[in-house]
Amino acid sequence: MAITASEVKKLREMTGAGMMDCKKALTESNGDFDGAVDILRKQGQKISAKRADRDTSEGAVFIEIFNNDSEGVIIGLGCETDFVALNEEFVKLGNEIAQLAASKKPSTTEELLKLEIGGQALEAKITDFVGKMGEKISIVGYNYLSADKLAAYIHSNGKVGVLVAMDNAANADYDAIGKDLGMQIAAMNPVALDENGVDSKITEREMAIGVERAREEGKPENLLDRIAQGYVKKYLQENTLMNQAFVKDPKVTIAQYVKNEGKGMEIKTFKRVSVGE
User: Fold this and answer.
1) CA distance readout (Å), 164 to 39, 61, 145, 147, 258
2) Which pTM does this prediction carry?
3) Do residues 20 and 35 share a domain?
4) Residue 207, Cβ neighbours under 10 Å: how many?
5) What's the CATH number where 31 sits?
6) Domain with 234 in it
7) Residues 44 and 58 in one domain
8) Over the stretch 143-185, which tens digit does the pLDDT of each residue have?
9) What is the tens place of the pLDDT at every residue in 1-43?
């Protein structure tokens, strides 16, 4: 049967798929719109499978803070090109996912993908969107945090975001301090809040590197461990948030900045999510 332009237009408005894809789907389904939608969904699944091994080097970070700034979610939604990352529908999808996560507070990305949005599982909705956009789209990072107060920072390129959790924050300008810390974390990418939060495998690796560096520099064998400990100490100073020099005032550490400005505030934790790094 002949497929009219108005029918193609109607299916396009229903699904957002391309004109030619809509025409092919309607032709294959003999003009049945439900059947055509199913065909487009299957096409999306095929595209998703084909794209599974592609890199999501672009995308955006989305953050929702709620419940009087005491809870928040941060999500990284990845895609292949900045053309899609800047697309209004991609941004809308990212915001919808963040709002869904805020309402349900799943613990993991896997739990998030199983939640329903618009009558279908989020995972299926993303698969459909892959078919519509024609490139790989996936959640590349997700975290939920709760504390006395939360603050958010998203870098100007939209590809790096930080959620900062603070306790005993009632007497401080927690939003301004949190944004300063978020900017620090986005720029410096610390591995942990302080040395106590650093994985032992990291310190062991840095110790081994320090020993080899000292040996290559010709240091005495009996002093290698002591010298390597100095390397590890420097690594922890540069790579743990509270010990880092504050990027806006390098004369003070983050710990000193929080002590000076926080009025008893304690930094509980942070989550940094990025796309394309």
Assistant:
1) 44, 15, 8, 9, 13
2) 0.79
3) yes
4) 16
5) 1.10.8.10
6) 199-239
7) no
8) 999 999 999 999 999 999 999 999 999 899 999 999 999 999 9
9) 688 888 888 777 666 677 888 888 888 888 887 788 777 766 6
